[in-house]
Structure formats: C-alpha cells, structure tokens
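$ run holo --ligand "fe (ii) ion" --emit tokens
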Amino acid sequence: MKEMVTSVQYLISDGFDIGKGTDPYKNFIYTSFQESATNVSHRRVASLTKKTGNKQLAKICGIIAADEARHANAYIDFVDRIFAIDGSEMMLAFEDMMRKKIVMPAHFLRESGGYLGGLWSHFSDAAQRIEVYTAQDYIDILKSLIHKWDIGNIRDLIESGEKARDYVMTLPARLQRISERMKTPSKEYEFSWIGSYA
Ligand SMILES: [Fe+2]
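-- output --
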C-alpha cells in the first residue's frame, strides 16, 4: 500500500497535460471519450475480480463503472447540443483531440524513485495484456461517439470543418489497420505496488 500511495501522491503533484488547453469544446470531447474508457475498464476489472472471488471489489468496480457511464452520457449530450448550434467549431475540436489522441489522466504515472510517466507504459501494457482496456476499446469508443453524434450526416460546415468531419469518419478504419499490426505486450512488469510490504 505504501508504494501505491507514493504513486498516487506523485500523480497529484505531477498533474497532467491532456492537450485540451482551456477550450471547453475540447474538454467535452476529452471527457466524452475518457469517461467512456473508465466505464469499460472498471467494468472489466469488476468481472475479473468476480472471477477470482473478490466480490466486494467486484461490487465497488461495478458501482464506479455505472457512475462513469452516467458521466460519459452527460458529456456526450453536451457535445451533441453544441454540434446543433456551433457545428464547425465542435467538429474542429473533435478532429484536434483525435489527432492528438486521447491520453489518460494518469499518463505521468511513476513509482518511488522513478521518472515522470515511467510507470505508465507498463500500466497500459498490463491493461492491454489482461484486456482491461485495449486498443480495440479505443476504436470502439471512437466508433460509438461518431454514431451517437451522427458525425457522417453533419452538413453545412465551413471548409475546414468539412475536412475535419471527413478525417474523423475515416479514422476508425485507419486505427483498425494499425491495431491489427500491434502485438499484445508479453512482458509482465513487476509493480512495486504488488508484493511490497514495506
Ligand atoms: Fe467519471
């Protein structure tokens, strides 16, 4: 637990930079995506812990997952309404966030003595390997947002907005091709959080 708390304290003091600046439209794209991702990952942890017999942890993760789905729905609704009144700017914000890729708020994760973000790649590799959150989930979330906002049928945009829409529409297929070439990380990193009783 001590190592875990150290990582959490680092996270709090390091903060994060998720590339959205102070732009509210980009913020709502980010949260629509990120809250959907945390819904998926908590749901998966809930079923994994259920399988291993930790019913309480499964219940906690299930409750968090349901909360995350509600958060996602609220932000998705905000974006939907903004699309109706300011389509071009909303589309440009969507494109910009997807070009930058949606990074998770813990991307600066580290262990005691570690460097900024040093632990994150191991953490996300572990998530991919045990299928708590995968590249396929990223693509599926993107597809569901495109569907919910009916991106393909949004018309009457300024020229750059039209281009942004076309970019977003072709993105899932492009990401799918990339993910098919990706190898599932096999290395099982030993986290200091686990098996450390200091
Ligand atoms: Fe949330």
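-- notes --
Residues 35, 38, 68, 71 surround fe (ii) ion (CB under 6 Å).
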